[in-house]
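Lay summary. Proteins are chains of building blocks that fold into shapes, and those shapes determine what they do. In this project we predict the shape from the chain. Here is one chain we studied, written as its sequence of building blocks.
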Amino acid sequence: MKYGYLILNIEKLLAENNISKNKICKDLDIARPNFNRYCQNRFQRIDANLICKLCSYLNCTIDELITYVPSDKDNN
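And here is the predicted shape, written in a compact code that computers can read:
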């Protein structure tokens, strides 16, 4: 059974706030390879602490950061 998937809108929020990946990784002490996986939506689990850090840093809400795509919209 398919349950859908999550999309992290990190790249969009970084662009809107004119923040580089290098800057956010340095400021939040996040390993760049791990951050890139989140940006590319190639993750298996989401760290709740990371989501809190991102929302605080980017001054956004969880629903601005994360989009849920239900399985009925999934073309796979």
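What the prediction tells us: The radius of gyration is 13 Å.
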